[in-house]
């Protein structure tokens, strides 16, 4: 009678890419392919492992949800900032007389390039507007002067 504690041989068919990955992993870890396959199958069949994976996925989804909420907030701040600026600019900037308007049109490209360069520098190094807004709002809520 066969010993019930003795391991049994099982034949499986693997996709060539999976087999190659198994061989390479076993070589890197200096372990047998059988040991790695057994551990992988045990892990796959373990209900605790499934619960652990489910918890990890839930945690990652929560992180994604928080990030998405921050992105929505940041986009909202950007849209409101742009709207306030445009409203302010339109309310305070008088129309230019004809000779000055022609000169301004000639400088549009140069000024736009300067704006893009300044924006690039700001995005690359400076504090982000959302950080400044958060700090300003927190100070205002505490009743402190800005």
Automatic annotation (TrEMBL):
<protein>
    <recommendedName>
        <fullName>CopG family transcriptional regulator</fullName>
    </recommendedName>
</protein>
